[in-house]
Specification:
Layout: E1 2-8, H1 20-27, E2 31-37, E3 50-52, E4 60-62, H2 64-75, E5 81-91, H3 94-100, E6 105-110, H4 118-124, E7 127-130, H5 140-151, E8 184-185, E9 188-189, H6 192-195, H7 199-217, H8 229-242, E10 246-253, E11 257-258, E12 264-265, H9 271-283, E13 288-292, H10 296-310, H11 313-317, H12 319-325, E14 328-331, H13 334-345, E15 350-353, E16 362-363, H14 365-375, E17 377-384, H15 391-396, E18 399-401, H16 415-427
Parallel strand pairs: 1-2, 1-6, 5-6, 5-7, 10-13, 10-17, 13-14, 15-17, 15-18, 16-18
Antiparallel strand pairs: 3-4, 8-9, 11-12
Helix pairs in contact: 7-8, 9-12, 9-16, 14-16
Amino acid sequence: MMKISILTLFPEMFTPLDASMIKRAREHGVVEIEIVNIRDYAADKHATTDDRLYGGGAGMVLKPEPLAAAIRAAQGGNAARVLFTTPAGRPYDQRIAERLAGERHLIIVCGHYEGVDERLIETFADDCLSLGDFVLTGGEYAALAIADSVIRLLPGALGHEDAAKEESFSSGLLEYPQYTRPPLWEGLEVPAPLQSGNHAEIMAWRRHKSLERTLRYRPELLAEAPLTPEDAAYIAALKAAAAQPFKLYAALLHYPVYNKKRQLVNTSLTNLDLHDIARAAATYALGGYYIVQPLDNQRQLIQQLLDHWQDGFGARYNPDRKQALSLVRLLPQLADVLADIEARDGQPPRLIASGANLSADITGYRQMRELMRREGGSYLLLLGTGWGLAEELTQAADFRLRPIYGLSGFNHLSVRSAAAIIFDRLLAEY
């Protein structure tokens, strides 16, 4: 049997634990729930449990002495997992609930007012949990949600052992819609597959509806959900049907860009930039990849390379490389690129600047991705060689993408690496 101890200043808020499924689970010996009033452990006659903030500020903070005494009393000298509910905690989800369901004793500390003295967390906390990016009056509601989500996973809590396995998040997806009798209500009919009696058809319908719901309400879940190739194809079809048609192009500019001394220069071709960005552009189905090079001798060199891979021996030797390099167009000025795209699509593209040092009016990748799919149209991603695009270009762009940050302070990706990362963040399957 699991034991859950909830430490709170307001025990009266936990009457829901005496109802419904949780009441039955308690009566059947599945779980023991203990509600501990923190005020019972205050040392003064006024049962003081909070005090003013050091450093000033509005509100009060729970004092360490009474809460520490309450936690130690709940532990009773035995092992227990201590959880603090706080907006500063990590987001609570089904995977955490499943891990907590394997514990023998949980102690949930309900934060209140401005929170608890940080020294309590440093001393006792095994985990700090939040229900989401919003603020509640106190941690009692979060404690109720955590207790409910854990108890329903305990053997014997739901009565039917498969019930918890088929609910939302258990498979990494939101659950499919549910229906019951009558089959026709106020002109709305239960979907035909559910009335067919065909088990395979019912399972397929439920899977599709689960995927549809998840894509609509929680698309981020799809990145980690276990999906079959059929699932991925179905999701791709849903996205294609829902999204406004848009095209993303990329342009690699050799001028105007900066050198190390922040001087405007015209850079020379790097052969890998030609090949690798073209291959990435083909992988992510860009509308085209432009090389912008004003210098005649440089354009002659680039054109020789393109001729080799687009029409010469290289095209016959490596058809895959030909497919990628066929996306490349060589033009002398950015204005020529804009005119070319407008001739293709009937409208000028909106410009997206990229770079390692952009800091003002930044657009995030998710925001940019959603905007392109919502509004449609044509977009041109500007990629700078050398030490980055000239400021006149970044300021003239419609959007300035957030720089790419990794796991260190190193911020010197090659333009071809940066391009691949940006393509993935803007155009990846999920």
